[in-house]
Amino acid sequence: MRHEVTGRPGAEAVLLSAGLGGAAAFWEPQRAALEEHFRVVAFDHRGTGRNAGPLPDPYAIADMARDAVEVLDAAGIDRAHFLGHALGGLVGLELARRYPARLGRLVLVNAWARIEPHTARLFDIRLGILRSQGPAAYVAAQPLFLHTAPYMAAHAARIDAEIAHGTAGFQGEANLLRRIGALRAFDASGSLGAVGAPTLVAASRDDLLVPWTASRDLAEGLPDATLWISETGGHAFTVEHPGPFNAAAVGFLLGR
Fold it and tell me: How many CA atoms, within 13 angstroms, populate the side-chain half-sphere of residue 126?
């Protein structure tokens, strides 16, 4: 598992885990704020980007958690805080359940204990686009589920560049189906009480893909959780409005 470690040598570590796209670059708006205080460990998920290649079948969130442990082992890090977005947040929950000694504090962005019917329906729509129109159309539609309309209107050139990059580096239909299958099968709703890590659960009220109420319910089910809500920013509010989130996340990870 290729990865990179940046930030303050000798400081506590933070492992970054992206969502369905799997790209470490998703966290670029958070990197500088985190690197000021921590060692930052970033990696593309198995089957994507710099770790591209066919995924095994079956493939589950538990496999992704083992991948994350493999990255920590390769980086020589025994214990790290964790920052995960959507699917990446599910990986954090699985780490907390299976490898609690490897985990410090946990930040879960737009995550859930069990997938909402609304979210499952939107994944069906996205997969319908993939199957009927192909990867280029699937990637072109992706910003609609990530961003707010004002952001897309104001950053049209950036959105076009991201679509071109995503199309060129598409992870492949087989890998995408396995990763979506993994997140749909994940269900931690009956074992949240076993998650001992202090957790910050963050969401946006106008997230189209994952209702903010899923984060509320997740926070209520965890023994030691704080809920942090952005009023706007969509599913990618960490990109659209990084400043407030960065301050909240860094403060939480520092134990302030």
Answer: 22
In whole angstroms, what is the distance from residue 77 CA to residue 38 CA?
13
Consecutive 10-residue averages of pLDDT for the chain (256 residues):
96 98 97 98 97 96 98 98 98 96 98 97 97 97 97 97 96 96 97 96 98 98 98 98 98 95
Kindly state the helix (H) or strand (E) to which residue 84 belongs, with its residue range.
strand 80-85
**Structure-token pair, residue 147:** 């961003």
DSSP per-residue string spanning 181-200: HHHHH-B-TTSGGG--S-EE
- How far apart (Å, rounded) are the C-alpha atoms in residues 94 and 65? 6
CATH of the domain at 246: 3.40.50.1820
Structure tokens at 27: 């966290």
User: Which is nearest to 249 in space by CA: 183, 125, 19, 237?
Assistant: 237
Domain range for 232 is 4-253
* CA distance readout (Å), 241 to 23, 138, 229: 19, 25, 12
* Beta strands at 39-42 and 4-7: parallel, antiparallel or unpaired: antiparallel
- Structural domain total, the chain: 1
Give the pTM. Answer: 0.96
List, in order, residues 6 or more apart from 32 with CB less than 8 Å away. none
Strand partners, 17: 84
